[in-house]
């Protein structure tokens, strides 16, 4: 199942007024940024900006530009983190099955005592992954 199909079921809690980007577009762009070694919303937004022609064309973004770091941050603060992790892990398992034929076990844990007090009290997650046959 592709990324779009996996994440289209994620509820968008944002108000319709003033919304410039579809939720799925922000998720896709953020994942692209992370896969290209961007580690925070500022760097992800900068990566998207310098590649904006690609993303605007790929996703058909009507406003003609990529989202700011504030927009990305607000979206990830608003969505259900448990549901996002569940979908993301399922998508990752789909990729591993398609590429290797083996199943990868992925487990995410919230670090509840380590709330980020500066950035809206977001809870960081630790993700562990291993192949089920025990080779890794």
The number of helical runs is: 6
Number of domains: 2
Helix/strand structural class: mainly alpha
End-to-end distance: 25 Å
Q: How many strands?
A: 2
Largest sheet composition: 2 strands, antiparallel
Spatial strand arrangement across the major sheet:
1-2
Q: Mind telling me the C-alpha Rg?
A: 16 Å
Order of helices and strands: HHHHHHEE
Binned strand content? 5-15%
Please mark out the parts with pLDDT under 50 across 5 or more consecutive residues, or reply none.
none
Quick check: average pLDDT? 81
What global shape is seen? Answer: globular
Helix content: 40-55%
Tell me the layout of helices and strands.
Layout: H1 3-7, H2 23-35, H3 41-50, H4 52-59, H5 69-78, H6 81-100, E1 104-110, E2 125-131
Antiparallel strand pairs: 1-2
Helix pairs in contact: 2-3, 3-5
